[in-house]
Amino acid sequence: MIDLSHQDNIAIIKMNRLPANAIDADFLIQLGETLKAQIESESTAIILTGTSNIFSAGVDLVKLLKGGTDYIREFLLNLQQMLDTLFFCPKPVVAAINGHAIAGGCVIACCADNRIMVNGKGRIGVPELRVGVPFPVIIMELMRAKVNSACFEEIMLEGATYSCQDALQRGLVDQIVEQDSLMDTALKSAQSLASIRPEIYALTKLQIRQSVREAIDAHDKLHGDEIKTLWESAETQQAIKDYMEKTFKK
Q: How far is CA 27 from its chain centroid?
């Protein structure tokens, strides 16, 4: 599910759960463990990318429905832990967004320090409300930190997905490049960020994102239990079923 390679000291993590890099509990564990290993390694930066023309299509809804309450709890815990590791990674992280980055895929991309998206038909966005599930606190806060503030409510409440150009305007991505230059551009970005003294880079990144950490902690106390209850509810399961039926009919 997760492929790891290196170019010089740059770690390249490729999400490879075919056909769409759908996110399940095991995927989150493997990605989180791979990230932690690279944080502890001699790698100077990390590039995160997908397979073919899909970065990630988001949560594996079929498995979520089949798994029941215990699986949902495991999934949400693994999601929280992986996103925490990725968003607060002390090393430079570059997302090479090779295509569609939907829902959880968009969130993973937005954890990166630099988000480079290929110019094409790929869409990016967080349609969770259209699916019928609430945003976990960590997703709400990291998205708040990473997108243009004037577009934050639109992005979160409307549940739209955007073309690369529209995504650039809203701060969902930082740069658009052609397909044949995506990885070269990502490597140059990673190498540039890695050239900064690592302890200084890590400290500065920690300072920038400290307010996000504080917001997560505070808002989890306010809304965490309610969000978990909603995820586990029969109404949410039915909403997911209805969304899947409408989507698969298209």
A: 13
User: The whole model's pTM is what?
Assistant: 0.97
* Residues 147 and 111: beta-carbon distance below 8 Å: no
Q: How far apart are CA 215 and CA 36, in angstroms?
A: 23
Distance CA 227, CA 218 (A): 14
Tokens coding 142: 């990291």
Considering the four listed CATH numbers 3.40.50.2000, 3.90.226.10, 3.30.365.10, 3.30.565.10, the one that applies to the domain covering 2-182 is 3.90.226.10
Write down the mean pLDDT value for the chain: 96
Q: How far is it, in rounded angstroms, from Cα 154 to Cα 107?
A: 16
**Sign of the alpha-carbon dihedral angle for 64, 67, 72, 78:** negative
| Integer Cα distance of 88 and 206 in angstroms | 7
pLDDT in tens, 98-122: 999 999 999 999 999 999 999 999 9
For the stretch 6-37, pLDDT in tens is: 999 999 999 999 899 999 999 999 999 999 99
Q: Is the pLDDT of residue 128 over 90?
A: yes
User: What separation, in Å, do the N-terminal and C-terminal C-alpha atoms of the chain show?
Assistant: 28
- The candidate with the shortest Cα–Cα distance to 136, out of 190, 70, 59, 37, is 59
**Domain residue ranges of the chain, discontinuous segments joined by +:** 2-182
